[in-house]
Amino acid sequence: MRRVRTLPALLAAVALVVPGCGGGGSEGGGTETAATTSGGSGQGDATAGEIIWVQEGCNNCHAINGMPATSIDGPNFDKTKPSHEEIVDAVTNGKGSMQSFEDSLSPEDIQNVAAYVEQAARGS
Q1: Residue 9 to residues 1, 20, 56, 75, 86: CA-CA distances in angstroms?
Q2: Which residue ranges form the domains of the chain, and what is each CATH number?
């Protein structure tokens, strides 16, 4: 019997339904949830955060979970392993050449992205 890989299929389906780069957020279409992850800071939903990570194109600039950045070489989170608070601050306010996502992502979305980065960089 053939094994089905559900996460790539789920991400592909979500990508077809939800707007791409710059989409989501509190203006509709965001992935807002108060669920918590196991481990880490206990803030945000890492699964929802991974979907937002893909939607927003974060992998264009950041390497994580063994996957290199696809275009711009930003910080490699597998090496820097930022804290939840550092991630929330950078996503909310921007950092260096990174834009702020405060106006395009809800506070819940930002917590979810931070939970994903924290978990993926830890290798969980």
Answers
A1: 18, 16, 18, 28, 31
A2: 6-122 (1.10.760.10)
